[in-house]
Specification:
Blueprint: H1 2-16, H2 29-58, H3 64-90, H4 95-100, H5 105-137, H6 146-157, H7 159-178, H8 182-209, H9 211-221, H10 227-238, H11 241-264, H12 266-273, H13 292-305, H14 308-314, H15 316-330, H16 332-341, H17 348-360, H18 376-381, H19 386-416, H20 420-447, H21 456-462, H22 464-524
Helix pairs in contact: 1-2, 1-5, 2-3, 2-5, 3-5, 3-7, 3-10, 5-6, 5-7, 5-11, 7-8, 7-11, 8-14, 10-11, 13-19, 14-21, 15-17, 15-19, 17-20, 17-22, 19-20, 20-22, 21-22
Length: 529
């Protein structure tokens, strides 16, 4: 038991302490990651629960709030820990070391699984408890016993996202070792999962606007595979312990069965997953040559497209831009009616806030240096100027962004019937924001590199650089949104977009200057960290 608890503590701390602040790991870094996860879950739960509760209470279907929010808790837990399961449970770089220790593979597997469970538990609790409070605020049945019952149920409901991550993580790890185009297959599967989540979110958002007619459809939707969520809502709201016991059994039994099956053959599984198919059809041919710039760009492209977690975490905004444009064109008539009712509301600055928010999530350069890992010395020894190496990393992010930005911009302009000046300024401001984010993310990554991560998912999802290069540009987006309130009336839409252009141009210039002046010295000093 002592060995198991030590392994559990080690794996849990490894998941949370992946954030590096400065040159050394700080003791508060793990708590900060936990607080960030809890805060995000609390925000999502508070927003959706508040929007849903009032309308559900009006039609007498308030317990349905617990059904929907328990589903959100499972989806969030699955989303947050998907790559951790693939990297930590099956593809950890210390597997050889761990398996050589005097511990059984079963103990190692169970400790890693429970570490994932504890990480998921944070998001599950901070989704269900705020939903329970709002449920009681609107007069939901069950009294204050709802909260302790929700807390106990969260312990069992949290087994579902952990079980899903174990299964999907195993599939992704298996694909990585069995297909010649492993990265492409893994990325496509993850994008499919993301598409399903986005479709579900869109369905939930549309249901909020028409709850009265959507309640029967939602109930029938949960009668089948979603039965555990109905059991939770009925058991908690009615205090029915038999229904709660059925829910706990539905969550616990499959989890124990899958964990037992995987742990029983854990050593054989990770050994097989670490093997790769070889080819014997090698043929002699000519070697192609290219210039330094093309070689560096292709290297960045192979790194991005060849790392599924990298694509998944930095490519969501790229999908949202054209996706929002397509949705705007589909609902063009509804948008026109809304604008007519709003009395000529200037939407171009608000559209820019949405576009820049999507662009802020495309923080490719924020993880570019860290993903070099132990191979960074190859770049440091390459006969290429450091400014060229850094410039190509910035150029690759811009090349990825520009097509999606152009398509999304054109569709949004057509859907919202903007004036020609607004068309031009919307595109210019979006380009300036992209020009600011790319060098800024690389500058941040040079200050907060993480070259010793156990897997790529830790770098992309949990490193300080990845978070700062994403959330700090979001602060600028918030500033642009606030200026809309105070400057729209005196300046008008075109004048406000011009102000945005000046601010973003200044930010882009400062980002480039900071990278050019400090980047080479920081890059050369990375070997000392």
């Amino acid at each position: 038991m002592a060995k198991f608890l030590a392994l559990l503590k080690l794996n849990f701390r490894a998941l949370l302490s992946a954030i590096r602040v400065g040159r050394k790991k700080r003791s508060f870094s793990g708590i900060g990651a936990l607080a960030l996860l809890a805060g995000l879950s609390l925000y999502i739960s508070g927003v959706y629960s508040s929007l849903l509760a009032g309308q559900l209470a009006a039609v007498g279907a308030l317990p349905l709030l617990l059904v929907l929010m328990s589903l959100v808790a499972v989806l969030l837990g699955f989303f947050f820990s998907l790559f951790a399961a693939q990297g930590v449970v099956y593809g950890a770089k210390d597997n050889d070391l761990m398996l050589s220790l005097p511990i059984s593979p079963f103990t190692l597997m169970l400790s890693r699984t429970l570490a994932l469970y504890l990480e998921n538990l944070v998001s599950t609790v901070f989704v269900l408890l705020p939903a329970g409070v709002i449920y009681l605020w609107y007069g939901g049945p069950g009294g204050w016993a709802v909260l302790p019952l929700l807390l106990v149920s969260a312990l069992f409901l949290n087994l579902l996202p952990t079980l899903l991550t174990l299964i999907i993580g195993f599939v992704l790890a298996w694909l990585s070792g069995r297909f010649s185009r492993k990265a492409l297959a893994s990325t496509l599967l993850q994008l499919l999962l993301l598409a399903l989540i986005l479709v579900g979110s869109f369905w939930l958002s549309s249901s909020i606007n028409n709850v009265e007619t959507a309640v029967p459809a939602i109930l029938s939707f949960f009668q089948g595979w979603g039965r555990p969520f109905l059991l939770l809502a009925e058991g908690v709201s009615g205090g029915n312990l038999l229904q709660l016991a059925a829910l706990w059994a539905l969550c616990l039994v499959p989890f124990l069965v899958v964990v037992w099956l995987l742990a029983w053959q854990y050593k054989a599984i990770i050994t097989r997953l670490s093997t790769h198919r070889t080819r014997s059809d090698y043929k002699l041919g000519k070697l192609s040559s290219s210039g330094q710039l093309g070689a560096l760009l292709r290297k960045e492209a192979r790194r991005w497209f060849g790392t599924p977690s990298y694509v998944f975490n930095t490519g969501i905004g790229l999908l949202l831009l054209p996706g929002a444009g397509v949705a705007a064109l589909i609902y063009r008539e509804s948008i026109a009616q809304f604008l007519e009712m709003a009395g000529g509301l200037a939407l171009a600055p608000l559209l820019l806030a949405g576009v820049t928010f999507c662009l802020s999530t495309v923080a490719i350069t924020g993880s570019s240096i860290s993903l070099e890992g132990k191979q960074l010395w190859l770049l440091q020894c390459a006969p290429v100027p450091v400014t060229t190496i850094l410039g190509m990393k910035v150029a690759f992010q811009l090349l990825v962004i520009l097509p999606c930005l152009a398509v999304g911009w054109l569709m949004l302009c057509l859907a919202f019937a903007l004036a020609p000046a607004e068309w031009v300024l919307l595109l210019v401001d979006g380009l300036l924001f992209a020009l600011m984010c790319a060098p800024f993310g690389l500058w941040i990554n040079l200050h907060f590199p993480k070259l010793d991560a156990v897997n790529d998912a830790v770098v992309v999802k949990q490193s300080a650089s990845a978070m700062l290069s994403t959330f700090l540009p979001m602060v600028l987006v918030l500033l642009l949104f606030l200026l809309w309130f105070f400057l729209l009336e005196p300046l008008g839409s075109v004048g406000l977009l011009l102000v945005y252009a000046v601010i973003l141009a200044a930010a882009a210039v400062l980002s480039f200057l900071a990278l050019v002046r400090q980047g080479p010295a920081l890059f050369r000093s990375l070997e000392e960290k």
